[in-house]
Design a protein that fits this description.
164 residues; mainly alpha; 4 helices; 0% strand; rod-shaped
């Protein structure tokens, strides 16, 4: 009897992309609020902003640079870790598949051939299921990159919303 593919494996990429879309929407909404607040503040401050305004305007640029640096760092670390994991997994599947094929080819009886064919099928199925998980990689990478930007934008929206 063939084994069924776990439902979680089929829905997980959809879940990850949905979470990314939700975080992106939250970040964009917060950015609109923050831009509106800061633009209004710049207009009110005029050509000679006070100390509080100057601090806020300096903070704007500083936060963007910090968020961008954190985003690149998070994405790079995640990409390196993912690349290492994928390489290890690929090599393991290649070795398992090769071993199973050689075992099948060197079978000495029909019964041994049947068992070795089943081993090869399991190895190929595991390899295919592992490959299907690759759809999660870009979503996870994008989430890592969005994280610092999202947290800054939503924190600013909360902070500036309290002042206004």
């Amino acid at each position: 009897m063939p084994r069924r593919i776990p439902r979680l494996l089929l829905t997980d990429p959809l879940t990850q992309w949905s979470e990314l879309a939700l975080k992106t929407t939250e970040m964009l909404t917060a950015a609109v609020e923050v831009i509106g607040h800061r633009t209004d503040r710049m207009v009110r401050a005029g050509p000679l902003p006070g100390e509080d305004d100057q601090r806020e305007f300096t903070l704007m640029g500083q936060e963007k640079l910090e968020a961008a640096a954190e985003s690149v760092t998070a994405m790079t670390a995640h990409a390196l870790e993912t690349q290492q994991r994928l390489l290890t997994s690929t090599l393991r599947h290649m070795m398992n598949g090769s071993t199973a094929m050689l075992s099948l080819a060197s079978s000495r009886s029909p019964e041994q051939a049947r068992r070795n064919q089943a081993k090869l099928q399991r190895a190929l199925t595991r390899s295919a299921l592992s490959a299907s998980r690759l759809t999660r990689v870009p979503a996870a990478l994008a989430q890592k990159g969005l994280g610092p930007i999202h947290s800054r934008a939503t924190a600013n929206a909360r902070r500036l919303g309290k002042k206004g």
